[in-house]
Specification:
It is a single chain. The chain has helices spanning 2-41, 68-75, 77-82, 95-106, 115-121, 126-135, 140-149, 157-176, 181-190; strands spanning 45-49, 53-65, 83-86, 90-93, 191-203. Helix 2 (68-75) runs antiparallel to helix 9 (181-190). The protein has 205 residues and is α+β, with helices and mostly antiparallel strands. The longest helix is centred in the first third of the chain and has 40 residues, at 2-41. The chain contains 9 helices and 5 strands. Helix content is 60%, strand content 19%. It is globular.
Length: 205
């Protein structure tokens, strides 16, 4: 009995290692394909479809505050209200304020195309547009599910990226719209953003 279990465990362990190696190879190939598409179209998100699910690829950012004093000079009480200092020399930043700082740093925002126009071009009715507009967040997955819930299907990467950029513009304008160019420069000098990649499979469990 014990000998048979050991042999079975070894077989399973070998299979798991082999499957993991193959899965890593597949993920690497899919990531290379997706990032090439994203670079070509200047997108932050991309999904590769299979018959039973999707492979999601996201550009993500690592955010750090290098010079809080400089930020505080530029932003005053806004910085005090949105950023708290942790004594392991890390800063805990309000999520929306952090997203706005990242967008500002990277210039990743635009009001060139309003979501209303995008939703109209996707064929939504006035009633649907009113309901959807209130729920858009600028997050690829949640916004895509929202559009799918009102019958919009297909490749929506460019539309969703334009919505994301507009929502970023709203945040940047809300927090930093009344700042001078010199203050914007000081803010960019006070923080650091590093790009990375996040991948994952999306399927019915």
């Amino acid at each position: 009995m014990s000998r048979a279990l050991v042999d079975e465990a070894i077989i399973l362990d070998r299979r798991i290692k082999e499957d993991k190696k193959r899965l890593d190879e597949i993920k690497a190939a899919l990531t290379a394909h997706a990032t090439a598409e994203m670079d070509n179209k200047n997108l932050k998100y991309h999904q590769v479809y299979g018959e039973t699910g999707r492979f999601n690829v996201f550009f993500k950012e690592k955010f750090e505050i290098d010079r809080f004093d400089m930020l505080r000079v530029a932003l005053g009480e806004l910085a005090d209200g949105k950023i708290s200092k942790k004594y392991e020399v890390k800063y805990d930043v309000d999520s929306k304020f952090k997203a706005a700082l990242i967008a500002l740093y990277k210039g990743d925002y635009s009001d060139a195309v309003q979501p209303l126009i995008i939703l109209m071009e996707l064929g939504l009715s006035a009633t649907q547009i009113k309901g959807v507009t209130r729920k858009l967040k600028g997050d690829y997955l949640s916004d895509k599910k929202l559009l799918e819930s009102v019958g919009v299907q297909g490749d929506l990467e460019e539309e969703l990226d334009a919505i994301r950029q507009y929502k970023n513009w709203e945040m940047v304008n809300r927090f930093f719209g009344d700042l001078e160019d010199e203050q914007i420069i000081e803010i960019k000098r006070a923080i650091f953003v590093e790009d990375g990649i996040s991948v994952g499979l999306d399927y019915e469990k």
